[in-house]
Write a structure and sequence with these properties.
The structure is a single chain. It contains 10 helices and 7 strands. It is of the alpha+beta class. It folds into 2 domains: 75 residues, Orthogonal Bundle (Arc Repressor Mutant, subunit A); 163 residues, Beta-Lactamase. Strands 4-3-7-6-5 form a 5-stranded antiparallel β-sheet. It has a two-stranded antiparallel sheet with strand order 1-2. A hairpin with a 6-residue loop joins strand 1 and strand 2. Helix 2 crosses helix 3. It is globular. The N and C termini lie far apart (49 Å). The relative contact order is 0.13.
Length: 251
């Protein structure tokens, strides 16, 4: 169990690392947070968070970065927030794109993949249940993240495409059944090693379903580094799926 101070500290480290991709040190915490405690107390708290498996120190003299467990703790705390929405300019863009779309499930999915990959700067794959055709957008944007500068990471990610059909079947049969539960979260999220796929255990996968014209059910999968902007991406996915569901009810 984390204290309120430790929870605030962990959230700061996560948000700062998401923003900069640089390890966070205790001196930066002291400088940029309103935690009214001594640097020694901050260091002790960071040591304890490390012992609990929430932070890790990449180098002896460097700062700390969040672990998959830390991101899971963070996501669980924000996923139910009702105020997670895109920025006004992004909401306007989503509404414009959807308003101009013909009632064609394939065309909507194609535009949706492009739109979300542009707004999130991550890889987005859209599909229709029981259909083998997918639209994939944003692979180049994903590779621009510092996490993918190593050739081995790029190779692993590329092989992900080869087994995406298998992964999609897993999502359909094992993952999305939770989305049919009214009490379940509208977005399913696998973080790092939570993924059952060996080639994609340094990334986060977000999945959601939505209604399409013609009684079709669409699905989107967003793939990015574990250091992704969770609040932004969850807000984008929630908003766009809600808007699609509204539009489908009106047709």
């Amino acid at each position: 169990m984390l204290s309120n101070r430790q929870n605030s500290l962990l959230n700061f480290v996560i948000r700062e690392y998401i923003r900069t991709a640089k390890p966070v040190g205790s001196s930066l915490v002291c400088k940029k947070t309103k935690l009214k405690v001594s640097p020694a107390t901050i260091r002790n708290d960071m040591n304890e968070l490390e012992e609990q498996g929430l932070l890790i120190q990449l180098h002896t003299s460097g700062g700390r970065v969040p672990t998959d467990r830390a991101y899971r703790h963070y996501v669980n705390s924000i996923i139910q927030k009702l105020d997670l929405e895109p920025e006004p300019k992004d909401k306007k863009k989503i509404k414009q794109v959807l308003a101009d779309m013909p009632p064609d499930p394939q065309e909507i999915n194609k535009a949706l993949a492009q739109l979300l990959s542009n707004l999130s700067e991550n890889l987005v794959i859209t599909g229709i249940s029981q259909d083998k055709d997918f639209f994939k957008k944003g692979f180049v944007s994903l590779l621009e993240n510092p996490e993918f500068r190593e050739i081995s990471k790029i190779t692993q990610l590329a092989s992900f495409f080869e087994e995406f059909e298998q992964m999609f079947k897993f999502i359909e049969h094992e993952f999305f059944h939770i989305l049919g539960n009214p009490q379940g979260p509208p977005i399913q999220i696998m973080i790092g090693q939570e993924s059952p796929f060996n080639t994609i255990q340094h990334e986060t996968i977000m999945c959601a379903k939505y209604s399409l014209p013609g009684n079709c059910v669409g699905s989107l999968t967003l793939v990015g580094p574990t250091r992704m902007d969770y609040e932004k991406n969850i807000g984008l996915i929630k908003y766009v799926t809600e808007e699609l569901n509204k539009l489908t009810k009106q047709t």
